[in-house]
Structure formats: C-alpha cells, structure tokens
Design goal:
This protein is mostly beta strands and about 170 residues long. The protein has one helix at about 1-15, and strands at about 25-30, 35-40, 50-55, 65-70, 70-75, 80-85, 95-100, 115-120, 125-130, 135-140, 150-155, 165-170. The protein is built from one helix and twelve strands. Strand 8 (about 115-120) and strand 9 (about 125-130) form a beta hairpin.
Length: about 170
C-alpha cells in the first residue's frame, strides 16, 4: 500500500510539472550557404545578453534553433531564450544577442520577433525584425571567422551578408 501511495504521489508531481514547449523543427542556420559555419551563441552559454555569432558547426545545442513563427529561439533545454537585439531601437551595427523571451513562450520584447523571407534559392532566407522590417540579421563585415558577432543592418537586395541558409535536423 505504501508503494502504491508513493507511485501516486510521484505521478501527481510529474503531472503538475509544466510542460516544456515543443523543440521541433530544429534548424542549423548557415551564412549564405556555407554549411561548415553555424549561427550560435558565443562561448556556448545561455546567459542574458550573450552575443550571437558565427562559429564552426559542432553540433552543440547553442547552434540549434527552432522556428516558432515568427520568432527564432534557441531550443537548448526547453528554456525560453530568443534571438534579440541589444537595444530596443534598431540601428545599423547593433549586436544580435540572446535574451530571455518571457513566460509561456510569449515574447517579452517585440525585437525578439523575426520574419524569414525565402530567397530564390531555397532554403535561402533573410531574417528581418518584425518591428522594423528595414533591418536584417547581418554577418558583420561579411567575415565567417569564428566568434564574429552578428549584427543588424539595413536590408538591401543583393547583400550576401544578409543571406542565410538553413538545414533541418528534426
């Protein structure tokens, strides 16, 4: 009888735990088709304000993103992290960072909402801010060097620094 009560208590505890949000589909995001480089989080740490950068693809959770349209967020451990910018007022050269997106999967900041526009070469995309569609996620100085921080920059056609490709993992 005692073990049956223990099992019921455990089931009740597990049922009361909040469910983690869905983590699929999971994507790797690459700068303009270079599948050896991935968008990730500098230093591999999920912390408020961590810089989003380019690094050799290595399979780490900090390089895996999921799209819960219109937002791109890092699936890591089910926590509510999101791709964001370092200041609520978009300007050229502003750093792309990781910030907490709030409870229940709701954005705590409108700058965490991104639109992905398919380019002519699928799966090419451009990611621009939903709040100000004139700014796109940009590969700083076009450099694919490891730890090159990403930024936002005014969107313009033909800018390869703003062209991204993705790979579906799951």
């Amino acid at each position: 009888m005692k073990s049956a009560i223990s099992v019921l208590a455990l089931v009740s505890f597990v049922a009361a735990m909040p469910a983690q949000r869905a983590k699929t589909p999971v994507y790797l995001i690459h700068p303009h088709g270079d599948t050896t480089k991935c968008v990730g989080v500098t230093g591999g740490a999920f912390v408020q304000g961590a810089v989003v950068d380019i690094y050799d693809c290595n399979g780490s959770t900090t390089q895996k993103w999921y799209g819960s349209s219109p937002r791109m967020a890092n699936p890591a451990d089910g926590s509510e992290w999101a791709l964001d910018i370092a200041n609520p007022t978009p300007t050229n050269g502003l750093a792309a960072v990781l910030n907490h997106s709030g409870d229940g999967g709701e954005d705590s900041s409108p700058t965490q909402s991104w639109n992905g526009f398919q380019g002519p070469n699928v799966p090419e995309i451009r990611l621009n801010l939903s709040t100000d569609k004139t700014f796109c996620l940009d590969l700083t100085n076009g450099s694919e060097a490891n730890r090159n921080p990403l930024q936002i920059w005014e969107c313009f056609a033909g800018n390869t620094n703003q062209k991204w490709t993705y790979e579906v993992l799951a």
